[in-house]
Amino acid sequence: MCYSQEMKLEIISQRARGKAHPTKLLFVHGICVGAWVWAAHFLPYFANAGFDSYALSLRGHAGSEGHGGLLTWTLGDYTADVDEAVRTIGGPVIVIGHSLGGAVVQNWLRCGGDAKGAGLLASVPPWGLGPSAWRMGMTAPRLFHEFSKMITAGVDSADPAVMRAALFSADLPDEAYATFMRRVQDESRIVSLELQGFTTFAPMPWFAPPMFVLGGKDDQLIPSDEVWKTAMYYGVKPTLIDGLAHSTMLDPHWKKAAEALRGWINTL
Hints:
Blueprint: E1 10-14, E2 24-28, H1 42-48, E3 53-57, H2 75-89, E4 93-98, H3 100-110, E5 117-121, H4 130-139, H5 141-153, H6 160-167, H7 174-183, H8 189-198, E6 211-216, H9 224-234, E7 239-241, H10 254-265
Parallel strand pairs: 2-3, 2-4, 4-5, 5-6, 6-7
Antiparallel strand pairs: 1-3
Helix pairs in contact: 2-3, 4-5
């Protein structure tokens, strides 16, 4: 089953400056955050570029309903949220997912979602996080331990210094990281298991719309070779950004990613 009951969802937006492009953009966040991660940079950047730009908080996150059931929501539940958001804002639409949000976007496409294109930013690969997690356990055991603890015991249990190094470039200001940490929250335990690859969520590549795949060369969670493999799955060339870590939209080097995404959008 792809979809579940609907929820009252938080959708924040910035309207295009000047004449709006007919295609709208919908951004879907990753684990433990909400639509707010797109508000500082990506929404105003793309609004200034002429796009009506929207960001969704998945159920149980930020201002959306469903906090009481957060730990048990499934990938199908989050997929229903993307479907509801697309129907709310109308089309044509390009849907862009980050990390967990990339898996949700892929599952929405698998379930028949209609998009002009889809962007995967530091996304969970089509086969899940299992291979990346195994390698992290071998090469960065402390990071693996802290990340696993964050998912199973909650964000307050993880070492903030280790998580900072995993999520952001070294030149992120201390104040920016403190602000980020004040807003993070726990994540669904079930979705965290599904993302390992136990649930099929990727569409067959020949059924997918035009795809954009981007990663950061300094990303410790989704390494460059996994970005390459994701791009190969969809038959496209990946974009890899020097100096960019996992938190694409809040990293000090976010603008390089936004410019690359904009360049691809302008080809559609």
